[in-house]
Amino acid sequence: MIEETAVVSKVENHHVWVESKPASGCGSCKQNGSCSTSVLSKMIRKRSVEVDSDIDLRTGDEVVIGIQESVLIRASMLLYLAPLVVMVLVGISVQELLPSDYDKPDLTVAGVSFLSLGVTLWVINKMQASFFFPYFSRPVVLKKI
To answer: Among 1, 38, 35, 4, which residue's Cα sits nearest to residue 19?
Structure first.
């Protein structure tokens, strides 16, 4: 099981939302101004994630959340491999459908392939909340710190 420390940001009707805590070195070391991790954490907004919990929690509690390795591997395969497979298949299909006397087949195949990659990533992003979390299961609260 992959574990991460988080802080409870909201508890509502037996549903718990958590935000990931920054790594222990971030924000407290002397290289804060030149550290890329510090710069990235300032640029990326925090996002609350709903988790399953059987523990009575309150806002501000520190918890350890976990997710099964197999869930992470399946989600990674879908989120990284699926768009690439779609892009290659669309590229091959477009190349086969183009007439033989077409002026710029390489440019057209590349453009449509990258367009299909973008559309696939957009569709995955839109389906994320409704399909991926219920299908792959959400993280669970393992213990309260």
So the answer is: 4
